[in-house]
Amino acid sequence: MWQNIVVFLVIGAIIAGAVAKIITDRRKGVKCPGCPYCKDCSAGTICSLQNDIGADEK
Amino acid sequence: MELALANIFFNRKAKNSKAVKQHNLTHAEVNRPYVIRGIDTDDRSVKDFLFTLGCYEGEKVTVISVLADNYIIHVKDARYSIDRDLAKAILI
Amino acid sequence: MRIALAGNPNSGKTTLFNAITGRIEHVGNWPGVTVAKKEGDVKKELNRSGMDIRAVDLPGAYSISPFTSEESITSSFVRNEHPDVIINTVDATSLRRSLFFTTQLLELGIPVVVALNKIDLVKKKGIVIKTEKLAEKLKCRVVETSSAHKKGLSELIAAAAEVCGKGQEAPFRGAVDLDSTDEAAVEAVDRERFAFVDRLVSEVEIRKTDSAAQTMQDAADRIIAHKYLGIPIFAVVMFLVFQISQVWLGPWLADYFVGIIDSFQGRVEGLLGDGVSPLLSALLLDGIIGGVSAVVGFLPLIMVMFFLLALLEDCGYMARVAVVMDRYLKKVGLSGRSIIPMILGTGCAIPGVMATRTIRDLRQRRTTAMLTPFMPCGAKLPVIALFAGVFFEDAGWVGPLMYFAGIAIIIIGALIVKNIAKEGPAKTFFIMELPEYRFPGIKRAAISMLSRAKHFIIKAGTIILVCNAVVHIMQTFTWSLQVVEEGMENTSILASIASPFAFLLIPLGFGAWQLAAAALTGFIAKENVVGTLAVVYSISNFIDTEEFVLVSGAGDVASALGLTSVSALAYLMFNLFTPPCFAAIGAMNAEMGSRKWFWAAIGFQFGMGYTVAYLVNQIGTLITTGSFGDGVIPGLLAVACYVGILVYLMYRKEQGAAAGVKEAA
Q: Which stretch of DSSP H or E encloses residue A17?
């Protein structure tokens, strides 16, 4: 029985951790978790790719 | 009298537009420096923007190559790719 | 103290910024402003002044008078936010153009340090610049730098620290109280300014070769951006990217990586032992670890691909792709600028959609925002890799096919939108500075790859983990919170939610509720398609196709999923070409600024995904088996309905169209 409780707590901790991370990120203004370019995706100019093509575009 | 005036006016206009047609960047030979005579566009901001690139009357411009419908031009030691519409607006 | 980095686009500001700050933290975001600036602290080893120095990276500008939204950020920052020092990065190879902006910055009274960047290229090109004379003429400090090679950086910071607090004298001053509405006067001043720069440059610069002369690069451009060769070359390049990442190098790395994950899962299973309730251990092993590791298993493939794409971006090739694509986009009523959001969209649709702000024409902006998500984004790569691996034996052509299908849909979509919103677009111009080709920086590409990989893992560990756990719980219980009995999987919460959708998907060749559920979770994040499939079919390993651990007992994943290769392709396309994830949908909503356009876009995307999948499935089935697949008639009705609405909208009376446009605007 105690094993169940431990496993349950572990699962709970993992999910709570993930949810907490999502929430804190959102508070910090990370609009798109996992966006490969940048923390906040407001326009491409600050993204790595934009520096190579986008910024040249006028 | 009025008619004659109008005629002169129209003729001149026709002549002008013909001249415009013949001497924009799309007619430029590749690899030959030209002097820009003017920018022909209704869009003020395009003209101003081109100005900040150094693309204005009296400046030298060279067409480096024509790729697809884009013109690679050389102005003030820098290379730009511009489209056909913009090339048409640059008079030489 | 704060230093602002300002300069022409492509003068190496951001490279300089990254070089002096080391890493990118604290991303500042201005509310209400279109494009963002970036802030970071200067590295301690470069900063000997003892002061805390913050660097602010601004978008590139050619002039202080704003013509584009990016430029207005830059000019309003230097004017209103009073940075202590401005570092003006100047591309030393094109002084004649760059110093125009410099003279404008010098007028502001804020001390300016000119970073004569790309100095290594100058020497290579046989140009000599008399730096001291330039400094004397400009009345400011000039430091030779090469941000790509990290040269001159500490000198630059030292110079900035030294001039901090001092004023700035302007070598050229236009009329002080110039009426900015007086266009002729402004132009006259700017003309003088250019003349001043010209005189200055002829004094300080000696050029041995004429920069207008043809170079090897121009010759290369003529082939790479050729009218007819351009697209095939792009196709070959994309094919190679996928072939290397998916067939040659990727799987080799992935096998090793998946082995580690598998042994981890085995170890956890061993730890749990027999005493734990099967419910909980299934949730942990299949739901959380299995689902996440199925997604993370694709990390090596994706990292190889990110790396190759970063190399392509770095060497200057993508700008040529923009040139090649420009003419096709023009023909369908899009702006040449539309290509930038679309190329950004291959990484993530959100920055892509947001980059549409730089398009001035409203209709083109909305159309581009609507169509950008059709480009397969980074999150869709695991889905593509999964289907290519499982159904097409890791064929290298599946990936490029998806990209070109995306491009084709964008072009068709643009044509349709052009015909529906009959509003003629304002004449738009496309001008782009062509960056020089350069040997791609391996280190830069590696850094870019690692940062993307980090975000990928974070996403897998947060959103995807939570989704997988929820999916697992939903498929384990019935609505009455009873555990689903063996063989009664259809009674689970998940099945009952997904079944109605699955019914709609029968004509597309994939009517199983599991597949519908995966497509649904895909709207939260596209990687979820992989995660959910892993959870509902209890498959944790999609990479190593020989060692499937299948609960259902089927021989391989393909038969477990109950898909033929044709319907698998249809399913893949359905997932790629339906509306993107919610985050991207939100970005679309923000950029469109019109409810009507927004819902039209969502409807259009759904219809498009459905139609494409329907056609692929039915025609493919007809070719492979000789008869149509299930549900051909109802599907046909749905597709005909959709096409009918589009055709009606395209050919309705002009009057109605005009009213519609007015409403939309």
A: helix A2-28
- Domains contained in chain C, number: 2
* pLDDT tens-digit readout, C187-244: 778 888 888 888 888 888 887 777 777 788 888 888 888 888 888 998 899 889 888 8
Whether residue C276 sits in one domain with residue C192: no
C529 and C580 both lie in a single domain: yes
- H or E element in which residue B33 lies: strand B33-35
Fold of B2-91: SH3 type barrels. (2.30.30)
List, for residues C43-77, the tens digit of each pLDDT value: 877 777 777 888 888 877 777 776 666 667 777 78
* DSSP annotation of C482: P
Residues of chain C with Cβ-Cβ distance to B77 below 8 Å are 93-97, 211
Side chain identity, residue C301: L
Q: CA-to-CA distance for C37 and A55, rounded, in angstroms?
A: 13
Q: Is the pLDDT of residue A37 over 60?
A: no
In a domain, C139, yes or no: yes
Total structural domains within chain A = 1
Helix (H), strand (E) at residue C449: helix C442-459
Residues 531-590 of C with CB under 8 A from A: 583-584, 586-587
Q: Are strands C2-7 and C54-57 parallel, antiparallel or unpaired?
A: parallel
ipTM of the complex in this document = 0.74
E strands in C266-345: none
Note down the domain range covering A22.
2-56
φ, ψ for residue C393, nearest 5 deg: 50, 50
pTM over 0.90? The answer is: no
- Pair of tokens at residue C241: 């990217």
* CA torsion angle C435 C441 C446 C452 (round to 10): -10
Alpha helices in B1-92 (DSSP H): 2-22, 44-52, 84-89
DSSP calls for C6-47: EE-TTSSHHHHHHHHHSS-------TT-SS--EEEEPPGGG-
Q: Find the radius of gyration of the CA atoms of chain C.
A: 28
CA distance C554 to C551: 8
Cα atoms in the Cβ-side hemisphere of radius 13 Å centred on C654: 1
Buried b / exposed e over C621-651, threshold 16 CB at 10 Å, is: beeeeeebbebbeebeebbeebeeebeebbe
> Strand C205-207 vs strand B90-91: parallel, antiparallel, or unpaired?
unpaired
pLDDT band at C613 (very low <50, low <70, confident <90, very high): very high
CA dihedral in degrees (A47, A51, A53, A56; nearest 10)?
130
Burial classification of residue C527, based on how many CB atoms lie within 10 Å of its CB (0-12 exposed, 13-18 middle, 19 or more buried): buried
Q: Is C471:C532 a contact under the CB 8 Å cutoff?
A: yes
Task: Say if B44 is an interface residue toward chain C (CB within 8 Å).
Answer: yes
Number of CB pairs, chain A paired with chain C, less than 8 A apart: 189
Chain C CB contacts of B71 under 8 Å are none
Q: Which residue has the tokens 């300014």?
A: C193
